[in-house]
Each structure stands twice: as C-alpha cells, then as structure tokens.
Design a protein that fits this description.
The complex is a heterodimer of chains A (127) and B (172). Chain A has 127 residues and is mainly α. Chain A is built from six helices and two strands; from the N terminus they run H-H-H-E-E-H-H-H. The chains are: A mainly alpha (127), B mainly alpha (172). At the A-B interface, helix 1, helix 2, helix 3, helix 4 and helix 6 of A face helix 3, helix 5 and helix 6 of B.
Amino acid sequence: MTAATDTRSAAPSLARSAAFRTFAVVCAIATPVIYTICEIQNWPLFTYHPGTNRIDLFWAPPVRNEGPAMHWYGWTANTLIGSAILGFIATMLPENMTRRIPLSLVWIVPLAVVPVLIYALKFFWRW
Amino acid sequence: MGLVPDFLLDFVTVNTYWTILFTVHALLAVALLGALTHQAMSVLMPVRQGAAAGGFVTRFRAVQGAGYAAAVCILWVVTFFFGAWIYTKYRMYVRIPIEQQGFWKTQGVFELKEHLATIGLGLLPVYWLFWKDARNPEYDSARKWLTVLLAAMVWFMFLVGHIVNNVRGFGS
C-alpha cells in the first residue's frame, strides 16, 4: 500500500457518476484527435486579428497592413466544443458499451499525436 | 497591441500591464509545475506505508496526490487563460521579431507548447475523475501514466516559455 492509497477518501458524487466517467474518458480521447485534425487541416472556428482586434468566423487570411491572423484560438474552440459534444453523445450509449473503452487510451492517444504535431511543424525545424 | 482593457490604462502603463500579466502567468505555471511534479513522483515512486521518515526525496514523493487534483485543474485552466491572453501580444511583438531573426526552432517549440496546452485542457476532467475516485483500482494504471504525461507536458511548456522569454522577453 502506498502513501497515496492511505489517504483515499470517499469520492465526490460526480466522480462516482457513470455518465461523467463516460464523458471524461471520451472527451480525453477525442481532444487530441480533434485538435490534431484542426491543426493539420487548419480548421479554426474563428480567426482573430490581434492588430485590429477583429474576429472572422472560420479561417481568414491576414489582412494587408493589419498584422497577422491567429488561428490557435479557433482550433482550441473547435476542439473543446467538439470533444464536449462527443462526450455528451457517448453518455447516451449503453454503459456496458462505454465500459469497454480502454482507460489507457486517455494517455496513449495524447502521447501518440505528439509526433504527428511535431511533423506538422516541420516548417520550423530548419537549421 | 493585443487585448488591453482601456480602463486599466488609466492606472498602469501598457508595459506594466503586460509585465503584470506575464508575471502572474509565470507564477501560476510555477505552482502548477510544483504540484504536478510532486504528484507524478508520488505515483512513480510511492512511499511504502510505515516507512521511516527519509530525506528530501522521500518527503518530496510522499505527498497525498489526491489532494492536488482540484488545484492542478484550476491552475491549468487559469494559467491557460493568462497564456492565451498574453498570446495576443506575443503574436505581434515577439513572434514577428523571432521570425525576422531566424529563430525558427524557438518558434517551433513554442507552437508545440500551445498545442500541448490545449490538449491538456481536454484531459483535465478524466484526470480529476481518476484522482477523486482513487479507491477504484480500475483507475490506478491510467491515473499513474496520465499524471506523468501531464507533468511531462507542464515541464516542456515551462521550459519553452523560459527559452522564449530568454530570446525575446523582458527588456527586449
């Protein structure tokens, strides 16, 4: 027994909820996948122009003489909304089905997308 | 110039405003780094029950990991929020000079940092669940490796933030 297990106390009700478990697991698996797709395909929900504080829906190019365009906020919005929706949909599935999702995927999938994201940034790896 | 609420400029200069924001972001990151490092050590090298009080390393890894979970989640979200806010300034006044000076790898690792920050957000609900239902042995392995992964991500992000600040941060 470890020091960590010594201190285990009764879990809050949310942590014992099967629906929350399903939501959290699916959300954790979906987030890296959706984010990687949005980044590689360049699918932001919106584009922010920091030079003028303007926001365009979906992807937009930089405007001449108005500074750069930022898409990361839009990828993040897509990712959080998309993974939350998938998580909620998963809660409607039968529990015996969602219980079959391997819990190890919650750390394997985020780890697996890292090389993909590094490759997607190949423009920057120049000497 | 990035996101600056106008009413604040009655009280502080633009430079002071961004300096305060960046300092708060950095301090929150230090707290997050410390919490997750303690927690990761506690799952990687757990201290046996009844073990005699050891030295610094033993005490470092003997923390009650479950007690850190909510704090880590809150710290991640708040640090992310401040980082996202500062990013508006970074994109205009830091990234462009970095590119002009040809520090491509520095910019590349910063891009990876922002990717990991977002991915980490999506992992927080399951991370919280695993720690708050710590009696459930089904979660033991996933909790361990997810915690280690999040700690590694925070270490990477912290060091990259430090490097970027060295390249073009305060005083540049």
